[in-house]
Write a structure and sequence with these properties.
Length: about 400
């Protein structure tokens, strides 16, 4: 028991960082309609706002080499968390320009965490890399669920209104950054140097690499579209806004907890296709239920969809490990997957918003999400076969 506790504690730095990976970004989703009314923004403008961080994720990987010149991976992560903390404060000033500009800055900070946290795991995790990854992905999901659940209550807490929803996550980011700085002073830390260029040139020509990338991109497209608009969809179907946010939060938490064992199960199998089909199928069935049903049963369907989207995210991450021959290969495949995958994912919230603006209903957007789940399965069938990219 003490041995397991010691192994888990060794990963504490990455768990602290994981607290900041999604909460500040996703806290906006239950109150996005409130922000739109307050600032006079249209559905399409709000869709772009929701997509800015994802676009940052897409374009962060090519900047990896430049960012790595700042020093050790620990220093880079610490700076990223300080930038995240300040951006969360400054985007809540009530100005439309500040909202968009510092959402972009926030996206760059989180994108840096996306790229360098796996590098930290590779550098320090050793045989416990899988354990660290499973725990930090779960923390991301749980904290995201909490962020969604508390956004509406926080927005009604005082005269700050929706701006108040960003305050706790700015404080957590600042405390995390300070903790990382203290840790760097107390320890001798090595320097992480990315080396992915040669592998990247090969991966661009690899069918399997593109299948992994497409699977991740389609998974993220549905996840970000759902995360952005599900509270609003529930609101339009008769839920109170606070109940809609709570429903999405609770189902998100349960989905994240369900997904903890998915990478472990997948890694033990020579072929991951069955796991992939089941997980993606849950997402598609859940979206179908949301499209066709109404009333309290919508919570059940969102739960089903949440299990699917929560399970396929770590499944995509473990595919990077399983389809790679060494650490440099894995880093290059991860960079390719995130760059192209998040670029595709950025279209999800925008496309959903445009379809709603044109039709006045969410039916068409949800139908597209169901179709995407089907294509995701097809891409995953190739990505999940044993072998390397």
């Amino acid at each position: 028991m003490s041995s397991l506790s010691s192994r888990i504690n060794r990963g504490m730095p990455i768990y602290v960082a994981a607290l900041n990976m999604r909460a500040g970004q996703i806290a906006i989703t239950p109150i996005i309609t409130v922000i739109g009314i307050d600032l006079g923004l249209s559905t399409i403008e709000l869709s772009w706002l929701a997509s800015i961080p994802v676009l940052c994720f897409a374009f962060a990987s090519p900047l990896t080499s430049w960012v790595s010149r700042m020093g050790s991976v620990d220093r880079i992560l610490s700076v990223a968390m300080w930038v995240l903390a300040f951006s969360l404060v400054l985007r809540a000033t009530g100005s439309v320009i500040a909202l968009y500009v510092f959402t972009f800055v926030m996206g760059l900070a989180i994108a840096t965490l996306n790229v360098f946290l796996p590098a930290w795991v590779k550098e320090y995790g050793g045989k416990d890399s899988g354990l660290f990854t499973g725990i930090y992905v779960t923390i991301m999901g749980v904290v995201s669920g909490i962020a969604v659940g508390v956004s509406v209550p926080l927005s009604k807490l005082n005269s700050l209104g929706w701006q108040m929803a960003f305050v706790p996550w700015a404080l957590i980011a600042a405390i995390s950054a300070y903790w990382w700085q203290r840790r760097m002073r107390d320890q001798t830390l090595s320097k992480h140097t990315p080396n992915e260029v040669s592998h990247f040139k090969v991966l661009i020509k690899s069918k399997v690499a593109w299948q992994v990338t497409l699977f991740f991109g389609l998974q993220s497209t549905n996840a970000y579209a759902a995360g952005t608009w599900l509270p609003t969809i529930l609101y339009d179907k008769g839920f109170e806004l606070i109940h809609a946010g709570a429903a999405v939060a609770v189902t998100g938490l349960l989905g994240s907890l369900f997904a903890v064992g998915v990478p472990h199960i997948a890694a033990k199998r020579a072929d991951q296709r069955l796991v992939l089909v089941i997980a993606t199928g849950f997402a598609g069935i859940g979206f179908l239920g949301v499209m066709l049903d109404s009333g309290w049963r919508l919570v059940i369907w969102i739960m089903v969809a949440s299990i699917g989207t929560s399970a396929t995210f770590p499944l995509a991450l473990i595919l990077v490990v399983l389809r790679s021959s060494d650490s440099n290969h894995a880093q290059a495949l991860s960079a390719m997957m995130q760059s192209f995958g998040y670029l595709l994912a950025a279209t999800g919230p925008i496309f959903m918003g445009v379809l709603y603006q044109i039709s006045g209903a969410w039916t068409f957007g949800l139908a597209v999400m169901i179709l995407i789940s089907g294509v995701q399965i097809l891409a995953g069938l190739g990505a999940a076969k044993s072998g390397t990219a």
